[in-house]
Design goal:
180 residues; mainly beta; 5-stranded antiparallel beta sheet; 4-stranded antiparallel beta sheet; 1 helix; 50% strand
């Protein structure tokens, strides 16, 4: 396996490993015996097995032709064979900016961009939240929307000075790193 970033143990007691380098899932039995490999093109940032035998995956697909970069973040549920996937929720994110520095270029996440947070529920469903809209959606194990909450919090207004301070902190950290 290449750069394995994410691993879960599923309801069948199998190890499912996301292999970043080769963009694939590798499935191993609980004793480490190889069972299967399944290709998957998006980048997997997180995954969680559910009690129903499904695998929830947060997949990212970036468009690197635009500046700042845009990423489609999608929450997907696979069946236990990893052959069938159903998209549950998605979010388009403008998420990074390249900052030139003295000796390199660094990529930083833009401040206060919309993000998706999610978790499998004890019954095998999933809850999905979005940070800027302050919205929570709860899906049943059958992926029916059973609850949607609008949280009352208002985003704190940011101005250009806030944005510049945030980006300046990365330039300072980069200079300190390069001095080592």
């Amino acid at each position: 396996m290449g750069n394995s970033w994410v691993m879960v143990v599923d309801a069948q007691d199998r190890f499912i490993v996301w292999d970043m380098r080769y963009k694939r899932f590798t499935v191993l039995d609980n004793d480490g015996t190889y069972l299967d490999t399944v290709s998957y093109q998006p980048i997997v940032q997180a995954m969680q097995a559910s009690v129903t035998g499904h695998l929830y995956v947060e997949a990212h697909e970036s468009d690197l032709t635009q500046r700042p970069w845009r990423t489609l973040v999608r929450l997907v549920r696979f069946d236990s064979s990893l052959q069938t996937a159903v998209a549950i929720d998605s979010l388009q994110v403008v998420d990074s900016q390249i900052l030139p520095s003295e000796k390199s270029m660094i990529t930083v996440t833009l401040p206060y961009t919309e993000e998706m947070a999610w978790a499998a529920t004890p019954d095998g469903g999933v809850v999905v939240g979005q940070t800027q809209s302050h919205r929570l959606r709860r899906y049943s194990p059958d992926l029916e929307l059973v609850q949607e909450l609008e949280l009352g919090a208002q985003p704190v207004p940011l101005d250009e000075a806030d944005h510049e301070r945030y980006l300046a902190s990365f330039r300072t950290e980069d200079q300190a790193f390069l001095a080592l």
